[in-house]
Automatic annotation (TrEMBL), chains A, B:
InterPro entries: aa-tRNA-synth_II/BPL/LPL, HisRS-like_core, HisRS/HisZ. Pfam families: tRNA-synt_His. Residues 8-306 form the Class II Histidinyl-tRNA synthetase (HisRS)-like catalytic core domain. PANTHER family: HISTIDINE--TRNA LIGASE, MITOCHONDRIAL-RELATED, HISTIDYL-TRNA SYNTHETASE. Keywords: Glycosyltransferase, Transferase. One of its GO terms (cellular component) is cytoplasm. L-histidine binds at D79, L80, T81, Q123, E127. This is ATP phosphoribosyltransferase regulatory subunit. One of its GO terms (molecular function) is glycosyltransferase activity. It comes from Sphingomonas carotinifaciens.
Length: 366, 366
């Protein structure tokens, strides 16, 4: 019984755990080379603080408990972005903008969903605080793509979305009653033409707007006779042009799922292999202590999803028989060997998953 | 208000967080070179499972909550060793012994103590499952010392202890009533000569037994007229001889604090700088599903304590003015530069904490 883990929680074992750690290190290194420095917020915060930092953000399905010290409700973070936003807004509030921060940490949810059966996973990402411009989004998307590539992923593709598209149209050229905006977004997200027609027939073209990047942009340009989307579409095209041909791109302008707090731009990242996205990002608004709002752009990746696709590294392990002088082992490690020192006479290279054995001179392959 | 963190929880900011991550990577790399592979258990388990894996281990001051899925009590790990022991005993139970595993993860306590005011910290370590021999302990102590050294620590010293010393003497040549063994250990731990004399005067020499390694061993040899400690003292001397003169060693044979589940050997690690220990380890016994017991040896380090002492790396950041071609930045990153691309015309190298600026050709130091 004590061998079982609660549903949604998993051990990572060798060599998967090593591979996951390597993926994480490569992702963070890609961000570091672009000037992103690590922030490492605690796993636990006041629940209220976690909930109130991002505009339109909430605290869904977090594990909570009462702190015996403060008598207040604490929560385990279900997401790291809000914490990094808090750091940027408070302890690094005096730092000139933009601030570039990276992070890697465990996040936890009280309940799993059908689409995401894990209740604990590693979130790795980078946030560019202070800007949500096309230049900022271009940098963030580029860093995300380089990070995936550095992690060994292939077949990288990006699905862009425009999270505030319906709000923008509804407030402008295609008015919708305020109480109908939510239901309309929901029907569009579900690609439910009948539902959309019943609420606001003007929006019907958006049901079919998703697809390969160039043609989707073209359809949106035709819809946007009043030009309220022009800056967004220009921005998307500039980002796509900067990325070049190496990355497949699609646009699903009304996709909202998972982009609850993003503003003008959102994107999902895919790689060859896993059926689900391996990361996402976009622009958002964070809220300072004094109520002031600040723009930001960022992305998050999910290490486990990427590791599954990364090329397997060969395990090279060198067996050192009992009695091998310590200095010899040290010299071999200095040459980059992973050594496994036999501590008992009956230990064997096979038992220790060794590929090589050393008996003096040059390591011999088994 | 939302800027505050609960007592005992802390943000790690740049450049400290980067330094902590680097220390962690170096420690794990030192273990990897000795054949230790990563295990990464989840942050949360069934409380009962966490409590029952180590002999004489418990689950003190863990954060607990009721799982809405299983309706059972879950706990956040206050320690990683018991989890790694569980993995070795269950999912890796079929693997030939010894099994070498390393780990790095966040651990959480519900309450802080006066000596350890943090409620969340990173525990990094390595466990050698299947052996608690002198050879095993020598390897573990060596890996710990190499890991600290790789992390940049200097002035490394080790304080050894013999956690089951009193039990061994009390069960043999210096009998003590069963109900008095606990109080006696406590008085010895407190170095309270009067208290020890009141319970068992034979143990008085142990009050003064702590000190530099060679003289402490010598005092214990004199006390051990019946030879029940001989194998332990021989083992300690063999470990000390293997470590050589580079590491300062002391022996505090009755120190028990923090060694609640260790068996014949325990040790605390110190480095120049922090007043408190930066790690500890020793031999212990883990319990399999069928009740079978297995010996093991391991160590854990606390990254934050080490980072404070590590030499500061210089921050080298290269400012790329607005309009720098992406390919130029990529080439500079390829040469190892950390680049910070200006995204707006009024951004400056100073604002971005850059040490160098690039305007074509060779990066110029500011």
């Amino acid at each position: 019984m004590t061998a079982l883990l609660p549903e949604g929680f998993h051990d990572r074992l060798p060599p998967f755990a090593d591979a996951a750690a390597a993926v994480e290190a490569r992702v963070l290194e890609a961000a570091r080379l672009h000037g992103y420095e690590r922030a490492d917020p605690p796993l636990i915060e006041f629940a209220q603080a976690l909930a109130s930092r991002l505009k339109a953000g909430g605290l869904h399905d977090a594990v909570r408990f009462v702190d015996p010290v403060s008598q207040r409700t604490l929560a385990l973070r279900p997401d790291l972005t809000a914490q990094v936003a808090r750091i940027a807004a408070t302890r690094m509030g005096h730092h000139p903008r933009p601030v570039r921060l990276s992070y890697a940490g465990t996040v936890v949810k009280l309940r799993a969903s059908q689409l995401a059966p894990a209740r604990e996973w590693r979130q790795i990402g980078a946030e560019l605080i202070g800007l949500d411009s096309v230049a900022a989004a271009t940098e963030i998307v580029r860093v995300a793509v380089e990070a995936l590539s550095a992690a060994g992923a292939t077949g990288i593709s990006i699905d862009f979305t425009l999270p505030d598209l319906v709000d923008t149209l509804a407030a402008g050229p295609l008015p919708v009653a305020a109480e109908q905006v939510g239901p309309l977004r929901e029907r569009l997200d579900a690609k439910d033409a009948g539902g959309v027609a019943a609420i606001a027939p003007d929006y019907l073209p958006l049901v079919e707007a998703a697809g390969p990047f160039a043609s989707a942009i073209e359809r949106l340009r035709r819809l946007d006779v009043h030009g309220v989307l022009a800056s967004r579409l220009d921005g998307l095209e500039a980002i796509a042009a900067a990325l070049g041909d190496g990355v497949a791109m699609t646009l699903d302008p009304t996709e909202r799922h998972g982009f609850e707090y993003q503003s003008w731009l959102g994107f999902s990242l895919f790689v060859a292999g896993p059926p689900r996205e391996v990361g996402r990002g976009g622009t958002y608004t964070l809220i300072h202590e004094d109520g002031r709002e600040e723009k930001a752009t960022g992305f998050s990746l999910y290490a486990d999803a990427i590791v599954a696709t990364a090329p397997k590294a060969e395990r090279r392990r060198l067996f050192l028989p009992v009695g091998t002088p310590h200095a010899d082992g040290a010299a071999l490690r200095g040459q980059g060997w992973v050594t496994v020192q036999a501590l008992e006479a009956d230990d064997t290279p096979q038992a220790q998953l060794c590929t090589h054995v050393w008996t003096g001179g040059v390591p011999q392959r088994l």
